[in-house]
Amino acid sequence: MQAIVYDEYGGPEVLRLAEVADPKVGPDSVLVRAKAASVNPVDWKLREGGLDAFMDTVFPAIPGWDVAGVVEQPGIAVPEFAPGDEVIGYVRKDVVGGGTYAELVAAPVRTLARKPANVTWTQAASLPLAGLTAYQALLKTLRVGKGDTLVVHAASGGVGLFAVQIAQTLGARVIGTASPANHEFLRGLGAEPVSYGEGLPQRVRELVPEGATAVLDLYGAGTLATTSELAAPEARVASVADPSVAQQGGSYVFVRPDSADLSALVDMVERGELTIEVAETFPLSQAAAAQRRSAEGHPRGKIAIEVS
After folding, report:
1. Domain map of the chain by residue range?
2. Is 238 within 8 Å of 143 (Cβ atoms)?
3. Where does the chain cross the membrane (predicted)?
């Protein structure tokens, strides 16, 4: 099969398209013929060696944790899926190497759910990691609900757009930080946008004088320093970008594969409660360009890769 691989840590130039052996299918795994994958910041951070301290990498490594495709072969202990089933997955394993930028992906069954019937392959591949991050942060960590005012930092990014929509289904009022170019789009999703930069706490307080009751930081880069100024004293705070939040009384969120959570997101998509915004799409052969685009900044929505 064809796959994107890298033989050592480094910049996007270490990525190359290669012919590699088809992955083996373990008893609890599912062989998926990939239609699409998506790019997440963790992909290029892993490529740079940023998580080497706690995740082993087997070279040549195939990057990617998101996939959408068709079941080719279920493992011998997998009754949940059959050949021909359309699935999506957040295929994170304990070892980095057998990723999703490939024609075939061996995915643990615990990482998969059925594909939403009403979206494209690239949209479907853009849901798992980012959608699960937002879902688990809001429901399991911050426990957002009716009566909450939630501030989402980087609301127009891949995770942010999901967080804005999910929070509203939970009954929360949502204030989203974003560049002015994305304000109208966020308003269309029901959020109240505010601009980044100096004076942010004051702009939030103009909207909610008593302060936000929950804050979700998806940006890092010192964002937490302003939290106490824009949040109520008892506010719950979580970050997916800054582990130091734990030393400040908040919670650090690292998303985990969960079929039930992913299925809940699929149901939301099919009910029309959750839309998936794909900012750009690249062919598999241009995976390096796709990762460069991800590392450059914050496109509105997700970056997808067409595999086949």
Report:
1. 2-127+276-306, 130-252
2. no
3. none
Give the model confidence (pLDDT) of 119-134 as tens digits. Answer: 999 999 999 999 999 9
- Rounded CA gap, 224 and 214, in Å? 12
Taking the C-alpha atoms of 113, 119, 123 and 124 in order, what is their torsion angle to the nearest 10 degrees? 10
99 contacts 138 by C-beta, under 8 angstroms: no
CATH fold of 130-252: Quinone Oxidoreductase; Chain A, domain 1 (3.90.180)
Q: What is the CA radius of gyration of the chain?
A: 19
pLDDT above 70 (res 158) = yes
Average pLDDT score over residue span 90-99: 97
User: DSSP characters for 68-109?
Assistant: EEEEEEE-TT--S--TT-EEEEE---SEEEE-SSBSEEEEEG
The CATH architecture one would assign to domain 2-127+276-306 is Alpha-Beta Complex (3.90)
Under the banding of pLDDT at 50, 70 and 90, the label for residue 298 is low
